[in-house]
Structure formats: C-alpha cells, structure tokens
Amino acid sequence: MADFRALARKKQQLSDEQCKEILAQELRGVLAVNGDDGYPYCMPHNYYYNPDDGRIYFHSGKRGHKIDALKRDARACFTVYRQDGRIPDRSWAFFYNSVVVFGRVEFVEEPELRTEIFRRLSYAFTNDSEYVESEIEKVGKATALFALIPENMVGKRVKEE
Predict the structure, then answer these.
(1) How far apart are the C-alpha atoms of 131 and 49, rounded to whole Å?
(2) Within a domain: residue 101?
(3) 33 vs 138: CA distance, rounded Å
C-alpha cells in the first residue's frame, strides 16, 4: 500500500463520516486513471457509493481508453465535490466540500452483484422501475462494472477568499 500524504491544512479536514455522507449524496465526480504514455486521463463519471462495503461503483462501455488504462494499472483517484453556497457579499466566492479517494479498481463479474449495483445506480437518477429493469435487461451484459476499493480518503472544506 502506498504512503499517502496527509492534508496540509488540518483545520479544513472533514471526518471520515462527512466524506462518506458526501459520497452517498452526490451523483457525479471525476475519475482519474493512469492513461496512455503516462498521461493522466480524467473524466466525469456517474457513480454509486455503497455504504455496505465502502466501495465506489462505476459503469462503462467495455472498451475504450479508460478500460485499457484500468486493465494496465488498477490504481485510480476519484474526486467528488459539493458546492455549499456563496460567501455573503462576495459574488465570486463559494464554500465547498471535496472528497478525494485513492484506491484500486476491480472489475465486477458476479451476475447477481452486477444487477444489484446497476439497479442501485439507476435508482439514484430515476424512480421509473420499468425503465430501470428494461435498461438492465437490454444493456446490462454489454456494460462493464467496476469498483474503486478505497485505500485512502480525505475530505476538505474550502472557503474561497
């Protein structure tokens, strides 16, 4: 396991529980992988944080830059942030919380778990059960599912000034 850096501004650090709350509430973040020729490759991504196992799940096509990168190097970083409002009398400045998770990715192949996670991810965006079940049936087998297994997680509260 890597030796991860501590947050420089300890007073701004969020607790693990606050980090998990943000992961559970938000719908999108940015996934970064070790891309081609050592260049970072980052992309916005929908996700599902599973409080039962602490993993962050993503779905994707089964081919492409991201999948190739993850098969070559399972290490990844995922960042989520929540904007909590403007600072009064400062139209450009915001409060926000961010969570950065470092870990390794595992592809999920077990059919029952795949279906359950696809379902949970889908219901984060819609309550239309007919649509959800139809999509799982139609594209579930053609979709990659992978989990980021956290090795380090840190959150930070920022007040722009």
Answers:
(1) 22
(2) no
(3) 28
Give 109-150 pLDDT, tens digit per residue: 999 999 999 999 999 999 999 999 999 999 888 999 999 999
What total of structural domains would you count in the chain? 1
Which residue type sits at 119? R
Q: What is the dihedral of CA 33, 102, 125, 145, to 10 degrees?
A: 60
The pLDDT > 70 percentage for the chain reads 90
Q: What is the pTM of this model?
A: 0.89
Q: What residue numbers bound the domain in which 55 lies?
A: 10-85+108-149
Would 18 be classed as within a structural domain? Answer: yes
CATH of the domain at 37: 2.30.110.10
Give the three-state DSSP class for 66. Answer: helix
Tokens 């007919």 — which residue? 130
63 φ, ψ (degrees, to nearest 5)? -135, 155
